[in-house]
Amino acid sequence: MNLSSFKNVFFFSFLLPLLGIAQYTDVINSNRPGLAVSAYAVGKNVVQAEFGMLYEQQDHTDLNTDSNILGADLALRYGLLVEQLEIKYEGTFINQNISFNNFGFDETRTDFSRNRLGIKYLIYDRYKDPERNKPNLYSWRANNLFQLKNLIPSVSVYGGATFNLGDNPFYPEIPTITYRGMVATQSRLTPRMVLITNVAYDRISSDDPELSYLISISHAFRNPKWSAFVEHQGIDSDRYADLLLRTGVAHLFNENFQADINLGASFKNTPSRIFISTGFSYRWDFHRDELKPVDQQNVGEKISRKAMKKRKKGKRKKKDKIDF
């Protein structure tokens, strides 16, 4: 499939009327400390900011260069119109100091290494059916240990654009606007462990598109305020290809505020990369539960009219027996 066909198929499928119910939670749902994107939206009328500071050391053996990078990244998320829809901005601004050891001079590069805006939509919620959330009263194993069916994920799709403004030294020949598509999945392996995967195709309309994937596993400790994660990332393009590994921890201070730290490295030396990042996530929760008419509620949210009549009839019989 060529790039033009890919764009048409992706955006056509994205605009179809999709079905799904996002799971708004009472506790903040952050994509930090890793880069993997959750399948779920933040919830209607929720505003969320995810901010981080980063440092990276890069050494390139073939070019005989070494450099250090300081930067900041920011993600702004907003639950728009419906529970399962989210609009998101992601930006990373960095300052890179490079030493060209073969030539004896240094260079400084400063600009956005990431600057994009997009929309994510949950198309399938694995736990939309309340029956799947009920505990098994007869099996501790079924409630606490991994089962193959737990791999069935919730799925969301993402469509957006990457902006390359001005004379960007990191992307000198990339058009001002290019497109990005992604599929994100999320599986609850156990009550304490979550698997997230992302497959993304970035800079679609450029001469140098980038295919990448992310696999992330998060684990909540017995103290639920602490969690840890391990994440693997693969990147493939004509400009740059790499395999990265990162890990870190997050601490929940309250239902709206989380802090985190992570570190990672690459698997090769062209360039070799070692990096560390720390940050926080905060949300402003303006979410309100919507009251639905009985005939519009989902299975598990209502009692059928027939069941209500039986209940009332049972109450009347019980009352008659007592009165007698």
Short overview:
The protein has three helices and twelve strands; from the N terminus they run H-E-E-E-E-H-E-E-E-E-E-E-E-E-H. By secondary structure, the chain is mainly β. Strands 1-2-3-4-5-6-7-8-9-10-11-12 form a twelve-stranded antiparallel barrel.
Secondary-structure topology with pairs:
Blueprint: H1 3-14, E1 46-60, E2 65-79, E3 85-100, E4 105-124, H2 140-144, E5 154-163, E6 177-190, E7 193-202, E8 210-220, E9 226-236, E10 242-254, E11 257-266, E12 272-285, H3 305-323
Antiparallel strand pairs: 1-2, 1-12, 2-3, 3-4, 4-5, 5-6, 6-7, 7-8, 8-9, 9-10, 10-11, 11-12
* Uncertain stretches: 1-22, 299-308, 318-324
Looking at the structure, what is the overall shape? Answer: globular
- On the 0 to 100 scale, the average pLDDT is 83
Assess the beta-strand content as a share of residues: over 45%
Order of helices and strands: HEEEEHEEEEEEEEH
Helix content: 10-25%
How would you classify the helix and strand content by structural class? mainly beta
How many H/I helices?
A: 3
What does this structure look like?
The protein is mainly beta and 324 residues long. The chain has 2 domains: 288 residues, Porin, CATH 2.40.160.40; 32 residues, no CATH class. The chain is built from 3 helices and 12 strands, in the order αββββαββββββββα. Strands 1-2-3-4-5-6-7-8-9-10-11-12 form a 12-stranded antiparallel beta barrel. Strand 11 and strand 12 form a beta hairpin. The protein is globular and about 65 Å long.
